[in-house]
Amino acid sequence: MDRLTINKNKIRDTATIASLGMLAYRIFPDTECVNIQLLSGEQEECTIPFKEDEIFTLRNVSLKLAIVD
User: Fold this and answer.
1) 3-state DSSP call for residue 52?
2) Which domain holds residue 56?
3) Tally of structural domains, the chain
4) Cβ neighbourhood burial of 29 (10 Å; 0-12, 13-18, 19+)
5) Which of 16, 23, 25, 42 has the CA that lies 20 to 30 A from 6?
6) What is the C-alpha to C-alpha distance for residues 47 and 2, in angstroms, rounded to an integer?
7) Are 20 and 58 in contact (CB under 8 A)?
8) What's the pTM?
């Protein structure tokens, strides 16, 4: 299972996952959610709770959310 590491101090940023390519994320502090959007190929997105070790799936790849300061 791959890990997506998000800096909780950056409301918007990008990350790269080897098996998926580039992702963009946006944190919504008021709803305690994060929207994650896959940028390579056909775009796909999901909105999940903004909490450590949350598991979600994009393009049939399971990812675990890691939050850092």
Assistant:
1) coil
2) 2-67
3) 1
4) exposed
5) 42
6) 17
7) yes
8) 0.90
